[in-house]
Amino acid sequence: MTSTQNPTAAGSGASATEAFRASRPQAGAAEVSAERVSSVVAAVLDGVRAAIREHNVTYPEYQAAKQWLIEIGEGGEWPLFLDVFIEHVVEQNAAATQEGTKGSILGPYYLPDQQRLPAVTTLPMRPDEPGVPLVFAGQVRDTAGRPLAGAEVDIWQNDAAGYYSGFAPDIPAGNLRGVVVTDDQGRFEITTIQPVPYQIPTDGPTGKLIEAAGWHPWRPAHLHLLVRAPGHRQITTQLYFAGGEWLDSDVATATKPELVLDPVERDGRLRVDYDFVLEPA
Ligand code: DHB
Ligand code: FE
């Protein structure tokens, strides 16, 4: 495990904001009634006011908070901050009505429209890509147990240094990303490398807050996945690794016991099988 990397916010924060904007041309146009805006926003503000009263927050602390909020925006770190500290609760709400494979947070580093790959494939990677080889295989089925041929397993992950392509310099576009299409039995077999624990960038405002609070900035190693098939509800999830560092103290609170893989060594490589189950849309 690499615990010595030094990720920089300068690259990842701003690019995460750009990626979010690019993926949501309609952001801000959601149809929400005044009643709902009022009740949700009033509850958020009441929570903040209650914390200020309970902890007797002072003027210097209030002004420091204002400064920090400005820096989060200027550094483009709203996607990072929100996805680490807030998204898991929204995901829990979504999970309450979802059958099949458990979901997890999307996080800030998804990029759409990656290379489409056949069912048995190797993720795009550099010729000398460092890391422990991993074969990740399985089947996509519906909740009635029928295999879903032509389903899309949209996968992305970090490299052995902890970086995501598109969000750090010097990594080729599309590295360790791809949309794998299942065969006529709904199966896939993806050769990749083992992802490593992810550290929130330490040099930006989110990292500064974590340091100021004495928390740790780590997520356990994970694969990100969107799994979809026509007529079925898309699953957004992540898969983790048994025994991995930070599995029990994920800064993003996004692990679930059902989402932990336990690869075994076979022919000098790690291999693991995991099946996905999609519910009808
Ligand atoms: C963040 C990064 C991730 O890779 C992830 O899976 C979730 C959150 C973040 O920096 O906010
Ligand atoms: Fe991630």
Automatic annotation (TrEMBL):
Q: Which cofactor does it need?
A: Fe(3+)
The annotated region (Disordered) lies at: 1-22
Q: What is its EC number?
A: 1.13.11.1
Chain ranges of the Intradiol ring-cleavage dioxygenases domain: 136-164
**Broadest EC class?**
oxidoreductase
Keywords, comma-separated and alphabetical: Dioxygenase, Iron, Metal-binding, Oxidoreductase
**UniProt GO MF annotations:** catechol 1,2-dioxygenase activity
**Tagged with keyword Oxidoreductase:** yes
Q: Which PROSITE patterns match?
A: INTRADIOL_DIOXYGENAS
State the superkingdom: Bacteria
Bias class Low complexity marks the residues at 8-17
Family to which this protein belongs = Belongs to the intradiol ring-cleavage dioxygenase family.
Provide the protein name. Answer: Catechol 1,2-dioxygenase
Q: What is the lineage of its organism?
A: Bacteria, Bacillati, Actinomycetota, Actinomycetes, Pseudonocardiales
